[in-house]
Design goal:
single chain, 523 residues, mainly alpha, two-stranded antiparallel sheet, 2 strands, 2% strand
Length: 523
């Protein structure tokens, strides 16, 4: 595998351009390893324990239908996304895709935004991990340590893993993932074997029932379809990571396609089944009552009484342990993706070049340690604001994902537009009406709609009243994006060589691979 940097125009390149930047460990990952990295980032256990109750809050017993809608929407988005993956292979992922389709200025804005969003996610899940580690250890041993102690330990472990080969990280993620999936499958078998609380019904699978759901209105006073749909979309954050590991895979184009479709559709089926298990286990009206009890503090999770009832207390204990290890694995997945975005930006000279340095094991060690510092500072700010264990979960672990999800969904909407323009200009010969036009248009509509749902419902989702963090959330996302664009404008006028390298670094399977020099996206 060779690495081929491409540039915008010959005029942009100067003889003083630096030597080829560092490369990641090519050929280290196969399809299973990439799937572990992606699906663990989506955090199946955490997604079910937290997002199913939120979806139930808005859609009542129709929460499984919300996951069906999200599965269809994200699968359609993936059609154009995969078409782009076949042409562009880089650790830059979204950043590279937007640059190739919409130009370097918009591309750098999206690159900076997505890098920060993933770091915010890493910090948020680290806080969640700290909370559950603290409560779980205290319940088992009686030793009560604050959440921030476990947060420090978790971040230190992530940093240690980052120094080693990416394959070791993939194995750690894989073990955690398999354990999470097994405990949820055991719960599903128990509920299906017992026939649930009231038998089986197809009503939870009907998307029409997401709107004006009588069960949700009866228990919560209102039914917000936007909350249900957004909670479902939230559960897939991280599915798009395949291109970020492309440089380290044995067959980038084939693996990116298989990993993306596999994670989207596989998670969709799994989420739908488990959310249906939740609703069936409690009964159509009982599911909303169970969520109400969870929000009232009567139980840590509405899933725990289900494992007690249909499987046994041992399964509940296992789930309490796995939510800690699963949260750690999820945080590490986001941590690794953040490091690869910083690596890509450093390699192209946009951020300081030391970020592109790799260790003897060819891991992006400087970028990873930078992520450690930034995530640590972000967590520290929240700990100072609220040092309690509840603050780690309800503020750091709940408020922060809203910022991250909004940024990621917005960039995904830009990616959809970039795909259309890219195949209408640079790769015109590969234009296809469905995969590079209709599917991206539908994908854009889905991502933009999800953004609107988040912004409109952000106070209800955060439970934060009129907190400044939540009030300013959309403006922070916009400010980061505009800051990235401003940097690109400065580079264009003062450092044309660096500007020419924005989003142009590519991995090719051979030197004969087609060039993706943009023809209509150099602005």
């Amino acid at each position: 595998m060779t690495v081929a940097p491409t540039t915008g125009t010959a005029a942009d390149v100067s003889p003083s351009a630096p030597a080829e930047p560092g490369r990641l460990a090519g050929g280290a990952l196969g399809l299973p390893s990439v799937l572990f990295c992606i699906v663990t980032g989506a955090a199946p256990l955490a997604a079910m324990l937290f997002n199913v109750p939120v979806a139930t809050l808005g859609g009542g017993y129709a929460s499984p239908a919300a996951f069906i809608v999200a599965t269809v929407a994200l699968t359609i988005f993936s059609v154009g996304y995969i078409a782009m993956c076949r042409r562009v292979t880089s650790a830059g992922g979204f950043y590279t895709f937007v640059t190739r389709g919409l130009g370097r200025v918009v591309g750098l804005g999206s690159g900076l935004l997505i890098a920060i969003c993933y770091m915010v996610f890493a910090a948020a899940v680290t806080g969640t991990m700290g909370y559950f580690a603290s409560t779980t250890v205290a319940s088992f041993t009686g030793v009560a340590l604050p959440a921030w102690v476990y947060m420090i330990a978790g971040l230190a472990l992530m940093s240690l893993f980052a120094v080693f080969h990416i394959e070791l990280t993939a194995k750690v993620l894989g073990v955690a993932l398999i354990a999470e999936l097994l405990v949820l499958i055991v719960l599903a078998v128990g509920v299906f074997a017992a026939g649930g609380a009231e038998g089986f019904s197809v009503a939870p699978l009907n998307p029409v029932n997401i709107f004006d759901n009588s069960a949700a209105i009866q228990v919560f006073g209102t039914g917000a379809a936007g909350v249900a749909l957004f909670a479902a979309f939230w559960s897939w954050v991280g599915f798009e990571m395949a291109p970020n590991y492309a440089e380290e895979t044995r067959d980038p184009h084939r693996i990116a396609k298989a990993a993306t479709y596999g994670s989207v559709i596989g998670l969709g089926v799994f989420y739908t089944v488990i959310s249906y298990v939740f609703v069936t286990g409690w009964g159509l009206n009982g599911s909303a009552e169970a969520v109400k009890a969870q929000y009232a503090g009567e139980t840590a999770s509405a899933f725990y009484p289900l494992t007690d009832r249909y499987v046994g207390s041992w399964a509940t204990v296992l789930m309490e342990i796995l939510i800690v290890t699963g949260s750690f694995a999820c945080a590490m997945a986001f941590y690794n993706t953040s490091a690869r975005y910083l690596f890509a930006l450093g390699r192209e000279g946009v951020l300081p070049s030391p970020l592109a340095r790799t260790s003897s094991r060819r891991s992006p060690v400087i970028a990873a340690m930078t992520v450690t510092v930034l995530v640590g500072l972000y967590c520290l700010a929240f700990v100072i604001y609220d040092p309690s264990n509840e603050g780690a979960l309800l503020k750091l672990g709940t408020w922060s994902p809203l910022l991250g999800v909004l940024g990621i969904l917005a960039v995904q909407a830009l990616v959809s537009i970039a795909i259309i323009r890219y195949f209408l200009t640079t790769a015109r010969s590969e234009f296809r009406w469905w995969s590079t036009l209709v599917a991206p248009i539908l994908g854009f509509a889905a991502m933009a709609g999800a953004c609107v749902l988040l912004v409109v419902n952000r106070y209800d989702l955060a439970g934060a009243g009129d907190a400044a963090y939540i009030r300013l959330l959309p403006w922070v996302v916009l400010a980061v994006f505009l800051a990235g664009m401003a940097v690109a404008v400065v580079l264009r006028s003062r450092y044309p060589t660096r500007y020419s390298r924005i989003g142009q670094f590519e991995v090719a399977e051979s030197v004969d691979a087609p060039s993706d020099t943009p023809q209509g996206a150099t602005a």
